[in-house]
């Protein structure tokens, strides 16, 4: 028989799974260390998934599912953790994806970011700090740790705008107001405009998802505020190009100049499975906006940003490929993953061969792909 939803959520917390997937025709699936694992229960029926949904979803959100086919929200589970929930229709049946949000905040050392670089960025008086990466790469966790550090160390008024609220912050040295789309404010852009009249020092924008929000965020950064935002891009140069190209051609030159002045840093990240122990490890590319990088943005030479990052170690900068190689040398990730995720795999492979880290035989290995594991999770 299928487990009760409470038992499944307890299992997610116990196993430290990142996600729980609920769909008709499959047992509940846990994303564990990057892979998918089947819970030891029967496949779910349409009635099972509806009952799971109703057990955690308010009447208002249930009505939204019926009207538009889906809804997103967050909720607290006992005193163990929070979950971010996406309910959606799958061939007419109810399905859900639940993301585990721990109550504890990670330190920069635990995340894998350099403390000195982060403290330098977070104590700037104004500017735009972008955390980018694909879905499930840990962007929310990184941003929550940044906000928590500011809350513990600085006296600021911090406004977060999220959809939905994931990590809950309490007032420490700073004042933190958290606003949820659809509950407290209608849109990200409108929340930013209203927030500018509320004596803010810092904004966190859950997602820079459209032109209006990006324009409002850049304006807020220009006018004397720290603004955190996320994008689903990988790499600093691609992130800048994405922000510029979302605007009509007639506005792109203006936004390029505004970005060159306002941008403080781009932190791109991935989460990869570890080979030395269970779990995943974050891989970063860190760009700090030095005057030379600001000039490259202004002059449409973003393709040269990677070269600036390579020579910017004294600013705490690191390329994704360099970070991948460092983690591989430390025995934390596989060579296959280095080749899959490197921007320039051939150059990376050549450098590892030249340094004697791998030989030609290893470099020629065929990359293996793992499917869904049929692993029994203890009840």
Explain the overall architecture:
This protein is of the alpha/beta class. Helix 8 runs parallel beside helix 10 (about 250-260), helix 13 packs antiparallel against helix 14 and helix 14 packs antiparallel against helix 15. Residues about 370-379 have low confidence and may be disordered. The chain is built from 16 helices and 13 strands. Helix content is about 40%, strand content about 25%. The protein folds into 2 domains: about 5-100, 2-Layer Sandwich (Beta-Lactamase), CATH 3.30.450.90; about 110-330, Rossmann fold, CATH 3.40.50.300.
Strand content: 15-25%
CATH class assignment of the largest domain: Alpha Beta
How would the global form be characterised? globular
Strand order of the largest sheet: 9-8-10-11-7-12-13
What count of helical segments does DSSP give? 16
Derived structural class:
alpha/beta
Q: How many structural units, i.e. domains?
A: 2
Kindly list the characteristics that best describe this protein.
Rossmann fold; seven-stranded mixed beta sheet; alpha/beta; Beta-Lactamase; 2 domains; six-stranded antiparallel beta sheet; 16 helices; disordered C terminus; 379 residues
């Amino acid at each position: 028989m299928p487990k009760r939803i409470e038992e499944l959520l307890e299992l997610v917390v116990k196993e430290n799974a990142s996600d729980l997937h609920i769909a008709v025709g499959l047992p509940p699936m846990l994303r564990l260390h990057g892979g998918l694992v089947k819970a030891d229960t029967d496949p779910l029926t349409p009635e099972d998934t509806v009952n799971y949904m109703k057990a955690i979803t308010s009447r208002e959100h249930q009505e939204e599912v019926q009207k538009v086919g889906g809804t997103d929200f967050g909720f607290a589970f006992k005193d163990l953790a929070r979950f971010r929930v996406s309910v959606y229709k799958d061939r007419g049946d109810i399905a859900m994806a639940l993301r585990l949000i721990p109550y504890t905040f990670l330190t920069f050392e635990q995340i894998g970011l350099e403390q000195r670089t982060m403290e330098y960025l977070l104590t700037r008086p104004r500017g735009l700090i972008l955390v980018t990466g694909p879905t499930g790469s840990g962007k929310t966790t990184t941003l929550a740790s940044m906000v928590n550090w500011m809350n513990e160390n600085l006296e600021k008024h911090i406004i977060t705008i999220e959809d939905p609220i994931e990590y809950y912050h309490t007032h420490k040295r700073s004042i933190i107001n958290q606003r949820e789309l659809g509950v407290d404010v209608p849109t990200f852009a409108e929340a930013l405009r209203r927030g500018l009249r509320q004596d803010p020092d810092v904004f966190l924008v859950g997602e820079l998802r459209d032109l209006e929000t990006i324009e409002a965020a850049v304006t807020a950064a220009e006018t004397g505020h720290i603004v955190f935002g996320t994008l689903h891009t990988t790499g600093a140069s691609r992130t800048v190009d994405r922000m510029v190209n979302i605007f009509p051609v007639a506005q792109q030159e203006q936004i390029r100049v505004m970005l060159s002045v306002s941008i403080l840093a781009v932190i791109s990240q991935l989460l990869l499975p570890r080979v030395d122990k269970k779990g995943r490890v974050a891989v970063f590319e860190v760009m700090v906006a030095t005057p030379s990088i600001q000039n490259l943005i202004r002059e449409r030479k973003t393709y040269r940003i990677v070269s600036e990052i390579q020579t910017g170690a004294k600013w705490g900068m690191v390329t994704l490929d360099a970070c991948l190689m460092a983690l591989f040398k430390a025995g934390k990730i596989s060579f296959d993953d280095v080749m899959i995720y490197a921007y320039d795999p051939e150059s990376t492979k050549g450098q590892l061969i030249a340094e004697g880290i791998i030989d030609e035989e290893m470099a020629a290995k065929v990359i293996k792909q793992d499917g869904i594991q049929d692993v029994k999770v203890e009840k």
